[in-house]
Design brief:
The chain contains 29 helices and 14 strands. By secondary structure, the protein is an alpha/beta fold.
């Protein structure tokens, strides 16, 4: 019953649901107490509404937003409570007393202060929002960006301002209950004093040297930095906040480029979720600002996603444009017809080239370049199950997608069958369940299936922990957990998680990475991963969500994997380990293999998962694995050769394309010079040459 109510109300916990109920019941209770009248009952109901409301705001409850939509927002709730207090005074026959008029005047004046307070907060936030936000770009030496107001002044500012009425409410209640008017006037005076003080404290931040530079000044500083830095290769990305992983997967590759790299983002939410990097990053939300930015030295632009905002960069002809994607798989997204707008499409291996040829979506074969997958370098090859350890099987299904195709994911039709067979396998195996981060965002059925699977894994883990056949080294695990705590504390210190959060302007000003700190963080993250896997028994089933441990870390501790058609399968093939893929649409084994290159060396599962035994047999006896050679051949077909290293192939492709861009630009310059030498010949303007017309 409670869980159903939580789901319907879209709250996060039973405590949140209880707080919501108290808010909804508290105001009728206030009215009843005012009408009776009863000062103690009113005081109790007021305390409940204050505390429950504050709790819901602190939790960021969905219900708070819904109340605002039905005209019961925060200001209205405070106003109703104050009006009911006035009603209480009237019912107590105090309407002719000075405290009554004092309370009325106080609340009118208090609400009069809300307008300048709200205006100041809005103005401060607006003026501190930069036209661009950056990381690793030296703007500090070019423009002056002042410190932001203390976060405590702006964070949940409306709630803080409204809560200043607490002094007046308490004072008036004390005056009414004990006939002490002085207490009421003291509370009224304190509320007004604090309200005026809050407004006065904010006022200096909208004038003088506490205002950040204007947009044109900031943009000029960015252009000045660009002219000095002279970027050559750009990674361009636009997407929702949940798609930040698509740009994060390319950060290490960008850091290892031979040319000067730059990352351009279009959404602030992506910048907030970007992993640390040494590469300069510029977030440019405005299309006009981006189009006016000086990118004249850039010769290659890399695109990790096909989105509408790509057009703002694709329009620039002085650079060559490349689609690199965010994974290489047989899903339809990997052969999007939009890809033909790019000068080249880079794939991992021969399979990507063949995929476009079969799809016939307009991408020419000569425009496809095989560069391998530089991100796969951390994936370790399989050397069999270590002595004394039971095999580990990773179940990493993809999400349901936008189109409702049942073949997108196994999680709905086959997920529970897969997990049930794995947790009951004999001899036993360990299950790691790591779903796609988008799972359940579109389909309620997928979300429910994920929750059931997670419950199955957690229940099996608890049962195994109670089984005397599975012994744990408690001392070693305690030491590993202590190590985790030490590493996390140090990481929090280095990344500033324990300090006050900076606003966008300050983050831009102070966003230069400290290389020694960056290197220490990288080392600590590797140590964290090692300690994480030692912090629990090697036989313990686990549900793994969130960014850490990473998918490739899960690959390295697993001996086999079950997944769906996605780039996860192509990446896992780099390990050489046995794997299974679910034919969720049940098109049949042969047809499934024909349609999907990456499964040609896989065990194909039906929705019943009855074929899982073949996968487990290959893990337990690698010598008898009938698909081992097929996996080796498929690895080269999908991901390219092991030598030269993928990053070498990638850098070579960048250099070759940059040369093509430079050749094109020189050709255009030569043509313009030739036209200028002929009297009467029309010479194209520089804007027209670059594909831009004045307007």
């Amino acid at each position: 019953m409670i869980s159903t109510a939580i789901r319907v109300a879209r709250v996060g916990s039973a405590a949140e649901l209880a707080a919501a109920v108290l808010v909804l019941l508290g105001f009728p209770a206030l009215m009843l107490a005012a009408l009776v009248p009863s000062v103690p009952a009113f005081a109790a109901a007021a305390a409940v509404t204050y505390l429950a409301d504050h709790y819901l705001h602190r939790k960021g409850s969905y219900l708070i937003n819904r109340l605002s939509k039905v005209r019961a927002g925060l200001s209205i709730r405070f106003l109703i409570r104050q009006l009911l207090l006035i009603l209480l005074l009237a019912r107590l026959s105090l309407s002719d007393d000075l405290i009554f008029y004092g309370a009325v005047a106080c609340f009118i004046a208090f609400y009069g202060l809300q307008a300048p307070h709200g205006a100041l907060v809005t103005l401060i936030r607006s003026r501190r929002r930069m036209p661009v936000a950056t990381r690793n770009v030296d703007l500090k030496s070019r423009i002056r960006i002042p410190d932001a107001p203390p976060r405590r002044l702006l964070h949940r500012s409306a709630e803080k301002m409204l809560h200043l009425d607490l002094a007046a409410v308490v004072g008036v209640l004390v005056a009414a209950a004990f006939d002490v008017p002085a207490a009421g006037f003291a509370g009224v005076g304190l509320t007004l004093l604090l309200g005026v003080g809050y407004v006065l404290v904010l006022a200096p931040y909208v004038r003088g040297r506490k205002i950040p530079p204007r947009a044109e000044t900031v943009l000029a500083a960015v252009d000045d930095w660009l002219r000095e830095y002279r970027p050559e290769t750009v990674l361009y990305f636009s997407g929702s906040k949940d798609s930040a992983y698509q740009v994060n997967m390319w950060l290490e590759t960008m850091e290892n480029l031979d040319s000067k790299p730059l990352i351009i983002l279009r959404e602030r939410t992506i910048l907030d979720r970007m992993a640390p990097t040494t590469v300069p990053v510029i977030c440019v939300p405005g299309g006009v600002h981006l189009m006016n930015m000086d990118l004249s030295t850039v010769r290659v632009a890399l695109y990790a996603a096909n989105v509408g905002k790509n057009i703002h960069m694709l329009r620039v002809p002085t650079m060559k444009h490349v689609f690199i994607g965010h994974g290489d798989s047989d899903k339809l997204a990997s052969v999007n017809p939009f890809s033909k707008v790019y000068d080249e499409v880079w794939t991992a291996g021969r399979a990507g080239r063949d995929r476009y040829a079969i799809a016939d979506v307009g991408v020419r074969d000569e425009d496809i370049v095989e560069v391998g997958r530089p991100q796969l370098a951390p994936i370790q090859p399989w050397r069999g199950v270590p002595e004394g350890r039971i095999p580990t099987v990773l179940y990493a299904p993809t999400w349901e997608g936008w189109d409702g195709n049942p073949g997108n994911t196994s999680i709905v039709l086959a997920g529970e069958n897969i997990v049930n067979r794995l947790i009951t396998a004999d001899p036993p195996v360990r299950v790691l369940y790591k779903p796609h981060p988008f799972t359940g965002t579109v389909s309620k059925d997928a979300k429910a299936a994920h929750q059931r699977i997670a419950a199955l894994v957690e229940k099996a883990a608890a049962e195994r922990a109670a089984d005397p056949r599975f012994a744990a080294d408690s001392a070693a695990q305690a030491a590993a957990k202590a190590e985790l705590a030490r590493i996390e504390a140090r990481l929090a210190e280095l990344t500033g998680r324990g300090g006050e959060k900076r606003d966008e302007a300050e983050a831009t000003r102070d966003g230069m990475v400290d290389v020694p700190t960056f290197q220490e963080i990288a080392r600590l993250r590797a140590e964290w991963n090692h300690a994480y896997w030692r912090a629990f028994p090697s036989w313990e089933h686990r549900v793994i969500t969130g960014a850490e441990p990473r998918l490739y870390d899960c690959f390295n501790v697993s001996d086999a994997m079950v997944s769906d058609i996605s780039s996860v399968v192509s990446d896992f093939i780099a390990s050489g380990k046995p794997y299974a893929v679910t034919d969720s649409a049940e098109v049949g084994v042969e047809e499934f293999k024909r349609q999907n290159t990456a499964v040609r060396a896989a065990v194909i599962l039906s929705n019943s998962a009855a074929e899982l035994g073949e996968l487990l047999a290959a893990v337990r006896d690698p010598a008898a694995d009938p698909l081992a050679e097929d996996r080796k051949e498929l690895k080269q077909y999908l991901l390219g050769p092991d030598e030269p290293k993928s990053i070498v192939q990638f850098n070579t492709a960048v250099a070759n394309l940059a040369l093509k861009a430079e050749t094109r630009n020189l050709g255009q310059q030569t043509r313009l010079l030739a036209e200028a030498a002929v009297p009467g010949q029309r010479v194209a303007t520089s804007g027209e040459t670059d594909g831009v017309t004045a307007g």
